[in-house]
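Quick bug: Cysteine and histidine-rich protein 1 output formatted oddly.
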Amino acid sequence: MAELTATLPFSSNLITAEIRVENLAESSSTISIPQPSQSNVMSQQLAIEEPDNNNTSNMSKQQQKEFDEPESKRQKLDTSMKGKKFEKLESRLGSVLCCAVCLDLPKTAMYQCIMGHLMCAGCFTHLLADSRLRDQVATCPNCRVEISKNNATRNLAVEKAVSELPSECQFCNQEFPRSTLDHHERNECDERPTECKYSLIGCQWNGPMHGAKEHEAQCAHPKKSGADVMGALLDREAHHEEEKKLFSCLVDLLSYEKITFNDLRLQSYRTDEFIHKLFYETTRFSAFNHQWIVKAIVNNSQRDVHQSNDRFITYQVALKTKTQHPLSIHFFVLPGPFSDMKVNAKIYKHDFTDTENESIFNLLPLPDTAECNRLLAAKTINLRLVMFLASN
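Here's what came back:
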């Protein structure tokens, strides 16, 4: 019997294992254990000392997957919000900062009641005037609290915020702050309409500002003789004579004893006919100890006025109370203190009696159809009516 003793290290303790190989009963040969070669020992040591790179990478990936967050899924889109369009900030602010009466952004001072409801200066004075005519207390249209010049306060923060809101230029369609829009349209816009500088001698060209220089370089009127341009000079002189006559008439009217003016608001209404026609009317106002109203119509109330490109407004003054003697009235319309209406002064005259208590419909002298459309697009038309009563 041969004995083989091997020493194995385990947990820093030496354990001796005796391997006994007993000889078989039928064979006297001894079983020999082959000694491992040096190359095999080195390969086994390398295999133990250097683990498999593939296994290590697989283990690291597996551990990384365990600690990593789950893959993000594609966010589900809300189909109900897909086709929805959000309003711009300025449009939302416009609905918040608008006047509680006319629902429009003011171009003048802004007042508020004690509860904070906003009213533009035009609507505020209109409410006070209505309350005076009805002999009632003026109230806020929203909360019905009493309003007057003493308890209403001016809101400068809203005025400044409104002045910075963007507004679109009517010529170039670009947006500018409301405080600078008027200056841009008058002096800076390249698309603003202008005349040729030779219009004084008869040139009828009208076009955008950026094309004026090119036209003036090719204009033929500077090369015409004096006889050719005499007709244009005579027409302009006649126009100046009309303005001079109007100015002289106005100076004479200012010498009258009884003069009054009223800031009015034309509100739109519809007739009760089968085809509703548009007309404008003011509330009653007092002048010369009588009650009056102003009515206005578009294109003389013609049918299908919306199909007409040329539009104009006519107005009449109506006496609503009886009079014992005729009233010879001169009147004309001017832009009100809270209005941006562009109108020329033209004086009309009518003798009011009990039978002739309405004047004819006189033309409101607007510069063009575009100005008429702008007034019709507004909810109300603010104007000032000046009246002169001739003494008997």
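Actually, after a second look the formatting is fine. The chain has ten helices and 18 strands. Closing.
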